[in-house]
Amino acid sequence: MADQSLDLVGLVRTLVEPIVEYKDDLEIIESEQGEGSLLIEVRVNDEDTGKVIGRQGRVIKAIRTIARAAASRAGEHVDVELLD
To answer: Cα–Cα distance between 80 and 31 in angstroms, integer?
Structure first.
């Protein structure tokens, strides 16, 4: 399970990193929430928050959808949250 979670974190990093301007401030934290459930928290610079959210939340929704699709192939559930 740890290998899969590393892949999901890497996937989220791969999706978010090109969007942000302040790459040094990008922080991705993973934590298990229960059986087969993983929480990935993304923290970015305040100036990059709007870029990651996108218009009407489209970008963060797309990131969540891709992460959930990848997790479902492994029989897991993942939540991606953008922290302030």
So the answer is: 11
